[in-house]
Structure prediction request, 71 residues.
Amino acid sequence: MKKTKKKYCIIAKVDNVNFVKYRANDLTNVFIFLKNKFPDIRYANVFSNLGVNKNKLMFTWGKNKGLQNAY
Prediction:
């Protein structure tokens, strides 16, 4: 069986020192999971993992501003 690739790669700063990396298809569920698992999360960057925009920054998420498009 061939594995399917996830649409997004999320790199988040979860405290003063540590970063975590997750791959997912649904951003809403990932941010709910991150807020529950790491209540002190600072910010996250979302990169595309497929298509012509592969490895490009697509969205940013901050604990105060929420999800925004990357310019």
Notes: The chain is about 15% helix and 40% strand. The beta strands are 8-13, 19-24, 43-48, 57-62, 66-69. Residues 8-69 form one domain. Helices lie at 27-37.
